[in-house]
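Help needed: design a sequence for this.
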């Protein structure tokens, strides 16, 4: 194949990057490379392919939709799929989270949530409420506003740091004393705070950090007391990943805004949704056009993506997806937890279909060793920072999952043996 241009890859130093693996086919949890090799996918394409690749129901829904309507702009037009998907999402979400604003990527979905929160307060005559509370290890995207609420310590956005608006970085409280300190901080500062933004139960790109549902509940209750909007970013956690359809299903909370993307379309097409409750939506209703939400993206609510998302929700109803997650969780625990005793392993965390081994220090110089050895063993995993993790398709079979976990165990033991040789 001749190549006269270069695909500029994400998070990659293009001068030193290894040639990316060329994939020509996907099926279930298998990536087939152009050279004929097959890899078991331990990442599900950045956590999107919840039903595995090429699920016939998703493919059928997309092809069927393509025959009648692939895309129309939502500026002044609407289509059945956009309406139907909004209804289905609203039915599955708690409270009155029923006002669905579409976009195409997770970062933009969060960006829109932040705009909604800011304009909510502007429309209510409180423009000074312009700050966001965000958390250590949080990650919300790569656009400018989302970079400003992603933990600067995680090292993804350093070149831009001085250009970003400043918001309120907090540690997720764990103890009664920390909750009390957080509350008294918010009591003092809430009049400049528009919203709190958090990934529920698991902070993904910040290192698969996990915390209790109770923590989320207490944070939500505190925000209720000070009239601070509560935004949950479920872009990673939604659609079964943490064991329930949405992570917030495990906590007794009703956020004001929720952001969805990634597995929303079953990992087939770019789609995102920022979903507000009635309180937020109503603040934009007025005779005055200036109070409308001034956002729109060309491909928002794409009809093919909506058809895939509806079919994906059907699969959560018609196939035992959440039971499969429970099985995956059990297998991940029994395979990975023993690694806690290996030298150089700081901790092992498992929740739903997320298994993560945190090492004692960042493995920058060992990352390529891990990646190449995973590939050699026929597994696709992508460690980062100081974690080696797997987030497989929720449909992965037990042999495939066992191969992934056995490879993680083998490589971590090998790594430990060379790094911690006496
Ligand atoms: C929690 C969370 N929010 C937002 C994003 C950004 O999504 P996207 O890459 O689609 O812009 C991600 C991506 O990993 C994420 O995990």
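Sure. Designed sequence:
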């Amino acid at each position: 194949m001749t190549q006269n241009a270069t695909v500029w890859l994400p998070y990659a130093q293009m001068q030193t990057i290894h040639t990316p693996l060329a994939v020509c086919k996907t099926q279930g949890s298998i990536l087939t490379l152009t050279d004929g090799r097959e890899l078991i996918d331990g990442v599900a394409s950045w956590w999107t392919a919840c039903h595995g690749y090429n699920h016939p129901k998703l493919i059928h829904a997309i092809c069927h939709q393509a025959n009648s309507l692939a895309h129309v702009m939502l500026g002044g037009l609407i289509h059945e799929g956009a309406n139907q998907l909004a209804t289905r999402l609203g039915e599955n979400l708690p409270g009155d989270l029923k006002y669905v604003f579409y976009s195409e990527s997770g970062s933009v979905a969060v960006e829109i949530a932040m705009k909604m929160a800011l304009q909510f307060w502007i429309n209510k005559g409180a423009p000074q409420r312009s700050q966001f509370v965000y958390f250590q290890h949080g990650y919300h995207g790569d656009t400018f506003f989302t970079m400003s609420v992603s933990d600067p310590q995680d090292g993804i956005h350093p070149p831009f740091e001085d250009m970003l608006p400043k918001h309120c970085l907090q540690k997720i409280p764990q103890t009664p004393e920390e909750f009390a300190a957080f509350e008294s901080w918010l009591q003092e500062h809430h009049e400049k705070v528009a919203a709190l933004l958090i990934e529920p139960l698991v902070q993904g790109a910040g290192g698969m950090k996990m915390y209790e549902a109770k923590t989320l509940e207490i944070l939500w209750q505190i925000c209720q007391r000070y009239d601070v909007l509560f935004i949950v970013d479920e872009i990673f956690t939604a659609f079964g990943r943490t064991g329930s359809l949405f992570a917030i299903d495990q906590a007794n909370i009703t956020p004001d805004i929720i952001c969805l993307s990634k597995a929303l379309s079953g990992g087939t097409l770019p789609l995102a949704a920022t979903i507000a409750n009635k309180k937020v939506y109503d603040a934009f209703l007025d005779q005055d056009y200036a109070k409308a939400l001034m956002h729109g993206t060309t491909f928002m609510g794409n009809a093919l993506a909506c058809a895939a998302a509806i079919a994906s929700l059907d699969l959560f109803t018609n196939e035992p997806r959440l039971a499969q997650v429970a099985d995956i969780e059990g297998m991940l625990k029994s395979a990975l937890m023993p690694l806690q005793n290996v030298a150089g392993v700081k901790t092992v965390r498992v929740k739903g279909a997320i298994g993560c081994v945190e090492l004692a220090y960042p493995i920058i110089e060992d990352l390529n060793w891990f990646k190449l050895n995973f590939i050699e063993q026929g597994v696709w995993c992508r460690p980062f920072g100081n974690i080696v993790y797997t987030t497989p398709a929720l449909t992965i079979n037990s042999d495939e999952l066992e191969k992934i976990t056995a490879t993680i165990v083998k490589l971590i033991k090998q790594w430990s043996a060379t790094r911690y040789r006496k």
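The chain is about 35% helix and 15% strand.
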